Amino acid sequence: MIKIEKMASQHLGELITLGLDESQVKFVGTIDDILTMINAQIRPYVITVENQVVGFFLIDTVYEKNNDFVTSKSLGLRKFFIDNKHQGNGYAKQTLNLLPDYLAVTYPNHTDVYLTVNVKNNVAKNLYLKNGFQDTEELYLGGPSGPQHVMKLAYKVA
Ligand SMILES: CC(C)(COP(=O)(O)OP(=O)(O)OC[C@H]1O[C@@H](n2cnc3c(N)ncnc32)[C@H](O)[C@@H]1OP(=O)(O)O)[C@@H](O)C(=O)NCCC(=O)NCCS
C-alpha cells in the first residue's frame, strides 16, 4: 500500500539512493541539493510502498511569502519525484490522490496547494492536470530551467 509519511532520520539511508534519469534532473535538481532546502518551514515527506521509500516531496509552508502569483494562504508542493526504478507503476498518481486529504489533516489552516512545472515537463504537467490540479494559465519565469506553468489545487473548502 502506498503511503505519504513525514520524512524521518530512518528514511535517509534509502532516500539518498533514489535516482532520476539524467533528462529529469533539470526538473527537480539532485537529492543532495533538495535535502539542503529542508528547514522548519519547508518540510520533507517520503512516499513509501510496503515501507520502502519510492519517492519524495517538500511542502513549503511559506510559499505565498516568496511567490507573487499566490493569492491565498497556500502551501507549495516542491521537488515531487518518484525514483526512476519505480516510475511507471502509478505511484505518482496514487500519491496525488492521497494528497488532498493528507494536507487537509496536516495543514488545516491552509486551503490550497500550488506548484510550478517546467513547460517542457509534459509528463508531470499531464499527471497534475489529471489528478486534481488546475493550470492557472500563469507562467513563472524564475525557475533555473526555463518557464514553468503555475498550477493549483484547492484541497479545502474555504
Ligand atoms: C513525473 C513523475 C513524478 C511521474 O511519476 P510516475 O510514478 O512514473 O507516474 P505514474 O506511474 O503515476 O504515471 C502517471 C501518468 O504519467 C504517465 N507517464 C509516466 N511516466 C511517463 C513517461 N516517461 N512517458 C510518458 N508518460 C508517462 C503514465 O502513463 C500515467 O498516465 P495515465 O494517467 O494516463 O495512466 C516522475 O516521472 C518523476 O519523478 N519525474 C522526474 C521529476 C519531475 O519531473 N517531477 C515533477 C516536478 S514539477
Brief write-up:
29% of the residues lie in helices and 33% in strands.
Explain what this protein looks like in three dimensions:
InterPro entries: Acyl_CoA_acyltransferase, GNAT_dom. This is GNAT family N-acetyltransferase. With 158 residues, the chain is an alpha+beta fold. It has one domain (2-154): 3-Layer(aba) Sandwich (Aminopeptidase), CATH 3.40.630.30. The chain has helices at residues 12-15, 22-28, 31-36, 63-66, 91-106, 122-130; strands spanning 2-6, 42-49, 52-60, 74-82, 112-118, 134-140, 148-154. Strands 1-2-3-4-5-7-6 form a seven-stranded mixed β-sheet, with helices on one face. The N and C termini lie far apart (31 Å). The model has no long low-confidence stretch (mean pLDDT 95). It binds coenzyme A (COA). Coenzyme A (COA) is lined by residues 20, 24, 27-28, 80-82, 87-93, 115, 117, 121, 123-124, 127, 130. Coenzyme A (COA) binds at residues 20, 24, 27-28, 80-82, 87-93, 115, 117, 121, 123-124, 127, 130.
